[in-house]
Amino acid sequence: MSLHEKLGAIHAEGMEVDEKASETFGEVTWDEAEEKALVKKIDWRVFPMLCTVFGLSLLDRTNISAAYIAGAGRDLGLTAGTRYSVALLVFFIGYGLFEIPSNLVIRRLGARWWLSFLIISWGACVLGMGFIKTWEVLAVLRALLGMFEAGLFPGAVFIIGSWYKQYETAQRVSFFYMAALVASGFGPIIAYVLSLISVGNGMFAAGWRWIFIIEGIATIVSGFVAIFFLVDFPEKARWLTDRQRQIALTRVQIGSAARDFEHPNFAKVMRMLCNWKLGVFCLLYFIAAAGVYSLAFFAPIILRDGMGFDYTKAQLLSSPPYIFAIIASLCCAWLSDKYRIRWAILCGQALVGIIGLLIVLYTKPPGVRYFGLFLAVFGTQGNVPATLAYGQNQTPHVDRRGIYSAAMITIGSAGGVAGSTIFRSQDAPNYVPGMWTTLALQMLYIVVTFSMSMWMKRQNRRADNDRSVVLEGVESFRYAP
């Protein structure tokens, strides 16, 4: 019996592969202990540098707000009209447009060289912001910043999806996202310290310039370091032995059709983008991103206006819900991989978000409302990396994973724009329309996720019962609902 026949029989009987048994793919055989040692080695090589540069990217795209209140708003004339809003929004233009092209390039040039180039380039943009004298130049640099940063997040998700099995990705994508989120949480503190720097009596006496200069230099240095420490795709991993590299390649791929990577041309990319399943995954990520952005804008407002805290306390109290969200999300991601279930975790987190939003909206005691904020932040924040893992798991083809991650994050940029407009000043202090828009989106998320997962379960059963049914063009592949 061939490997595909064995796997098909296992699925048909509802059995799980015995993890203690040795595995054989072609001429490569390994046991559980060797695989665990290899995965541990991969973990330690993949994540440290990726998390570091993603944390820097979050710092570099948001440090404009810290510079604004440190004096850039006055010195560059950003307080007039919509100049500051323009400087913020131009970032998303390049960020949204260049994610898919970047994931097409990354495989040709190699992740290590391409991502390092992007890191150094956006670091140069941030450094340049420390020397500008007009808001127009700031807007141009912010647009370029969006173009160069566009490739990192989808590229990192693409890399992670290339190194790990279906039911190993959720906790690792969540760890990557949450670890960088922790790093970016120190951004305001770092910016405040840097703004205290003053050199001479001229241009460099302004502390806000040093926020851009120091953080820009740090990013450029990290870009050069990344050339040596960023991980590439498995077939290019020189830090593995030939045997380890072969195991790393075969353990994550099912069937020869999935192993053969082909650089897609324009027509093939268009066909991938027109896949209805990708449309569903993009819709789910749009909802997740919109919820995260809307709460990011709303949380300080409800703490200040709804609960009566002053500015300083409102800012300080905004952090604990996110710390809880990080811990809870990582636990749920571990459960999702451990018990090989996606839809229940995704829908459960969205449901927790709904409950939290209702508590914030309709209860009166400040302590109870604050508890609701913990649930709301976790419910929305946790589904961002979980949704990315969900989309990555539904294709065995490496080239499609790159397109899927880039397309989902591109649509997520639109979710960010939507999330920033949901809460209107005229709806203060309770922002009922914005709250119910967010609630409705979370309800839609549950319905779509459940429906999609049940469809995938049915397709898996069809493939188990009928050998002529081949999912995604690869024999023995099964969806991960």
Characterize the biggest β-sheet: 2 strands, antiparallel
Provide the gyration radius in Å.
23 Å
Taken together, the total number of domains comes to: 2
Termini separation (Å)? 27 Å
Helix content: over 70%
Shape: globular
The ordered H/E elements are HEEHHHHHHHHHHHHHHHHHHHH
Q: How does this model look, in words?
A:
It is globular and about 75 Å long. Strands 1-2 form a two-stranded antiparallel ribbon. Helices cover 75% and strands 1% of the residues. The longest helix has 44 residues, at 32-75. It has 2 domains: 32-234, Growth Hormone, Chain: A; 266-467, MFS general substrate transporter like domains (Growth Hormone, Chain: A, Up-down Bundle). It has 21 helices and 2 strands. With 481 residues, the protein is an all-alpha fold. Strand 1 and strand 2 (28-30) form a beta hairpin.
